[in-house]
Amino acid sequence: MKPGDFWRAFVQLLPQLEKALDDDLPAEHIVALVDEHVDRLGDFGWEVGPFRSGYLFSLSAGDDRDLERQADELISVAPAVNRWHFFSGKPPRDGWVPRFFVYESEGGKHLVDATAARFRFHEQEAGRLQLKGIDFGLAPPSLQRDAIEILLDGVIGERRRRALVSVDVVGDETAGVFRPLEDLDGQC
User: Is 95 left (phi over 0), alpha (psi -120 to 50) or beta?
Assistant: First the structure.
């Protein structure tokens, strides 16, 4: 799908997306509206949600640098739309309350309340930090990693996380030596 075709179709969805977000409809409703359009672009992750005094749409390339360039190009030609902000990579969220769902590939979902999450920081080579995050008790381990990445993306943004941070999961038996989430932004 060409970028112009995507944006024309996406702009047509905006009234429905705004209503779904304003009415706090289940995520499945929003996924049904957006997923087929994004799938035509490539293997992107995406996010739609409230942002400041409006809404956001972000395209996520994960760790794929070629896909990241494509996302940058696509977002660079996004139309100016009142109250909508478009991002390549998930941005940090101002005043975000870290409660969210992680989804299994089979369709199950798990609520994660990370409001009390704590981390331990270790310096690594080339200015990167290693974060050890408390285990949220999710299985398989990929869901745990997803939860930590969602949390970090909300606090420091996806690109900053990928550039600066590697993540390990530990049990909360060592929680006493961990720092609060608020310290994370100052460390990265």
Answer: left
Over residues 15-29, mean pLDDT: 84
Q: How many C-beta atoms surround the C-beta of residue 171 within 10 A?
A: 9
Mean pLDDT of 62-75: 90
Q: If DSSP states are collapsed to H, E and C, what string results for the chain?
A: CCHHHHHHHHHHHHHHHHHHHHCCCCHHHHHHHHHHHHHCCCCCEEEEEEECCEEEEEEECCCCHHHHHHHHHHHHCCCCCCCEEEEECCCCCCCCCCEEEEECCCCCEEEEECCCCEEEEEECHHHCEEEEEECCCCCCHHHHHHHHHHHHHHHHCHHHHHHHEEEEEECHHHHHHCEEHHHHHHHC
User: Beta partners for 121?
Assistant: 131
Dihedral Cα 115, 117, 121, 127, nearest 10 deg: -50
Q: What is the pLDDT of residues 78-109, one digit of tens each?
A: 999 999 999 999 999 888 888 888 888 787 88
Supply the pLDDT for residue 1.
76
Q: Tally Cβ neighbours within 10 Å of residue 30.
A: 18
